[in-house]
Amino acid sequence: MKTMNLMNTTITLLIVGALSTLAGCQTASPNVASSDVASGEVKYGDAKAVENVSNQFGSTDLQSIAETMTRSLLQSGVIVNGNRPRLTVAEVKNKTSEYIDTGSISKSIRSQLLKSGAVRFVANIDEMQTQTDELIRQNQSGLYDKKSTKKLGKMKGADLRLEGEITSIVKKHSGLTDVYYKFSLAMVNIESGELEWADEKEIRKQSRR
Question: Across-strand partners of 186?
C-alpha cells in the first residue's frame, strides 16, 4: 500500500511539473514576439539621397527642379537686389499620365526664393479664401479689439506671377521603359502681361524589367 501511494504521489508531481513547464512556455511566447516586433528594422534615410526606386517622378526630381529653377531665376538679373518684388504662384499644371503633387514643387521653389531674401510672396488663389476669411473674422465677429484688427483693403497686390507645367513622354520597348520629364516655369509681369523670365528643366529616367 505504501508503495502504491508513493507511486501516485510521484506521478502527481510529474504531471504538475509538466503543466508548470507548459504554462511557462505559453507565457514566454508573447514576450518573444513582442521583442521581435520591437526590434524591427526601422531607420531614417538621407532625404537628399538619390531616389531610384522606380522610374516615376520622385523626391530627387522634385528637389532637382526646385534648385534649378530657383538658381536660374536668381541669376537671371530680373530680380534686382534690394527691390524685393512681390510674387504669387499660380497652380503648376500636371500634363503627365501619372499623379504628381505639383503643389509640393511650387512650395519648394517658393521656400528657396524666400530664403534668398530677394523676393516677397503674397497669397495665391488657393490661399486667398483663407486670408479673406481671417480678415472678415477679425473685422465682423466683434471678438477683437478694434485697435488690433487688420483693416480690410490693405492687402498688397503681386507684381509678378510664377506659373508652370510639367509634361512627360513615356516610351517602352523590349522591356526597357524610358520616361522623359520637362518642367517649364515662367514669370509674368501682372500689370503689363510681359513675360519677364522663363526656364525649363529636363529629366530622363530609364528602367528595365
Answer: 163, 198
SS3 for 47? coil
86-89 and 160-173 beta bridge pairing: parallel
Tell me the C-alpha to C-alpha distance, in Å, between residue 1 and each of 9, 10, 14, 73, 150.
12, 14, 20, 104, 102
Is this structure's pTM higher than 0.85? Answer: no
**CA dihedral for 93, 87, 69, 195, sign (positive or negative):** positive
59-122+157-208 maps to which CATH number? 3.40.50.10610
Cα angle 29-30-34, degrees, rounded to a multiple of 5: 120
Q: For the segment 147-178, what is each residue's pLDDT rounded down to a tens digit?
A: 999 999 999 999 999 999 999 999 999 889 99
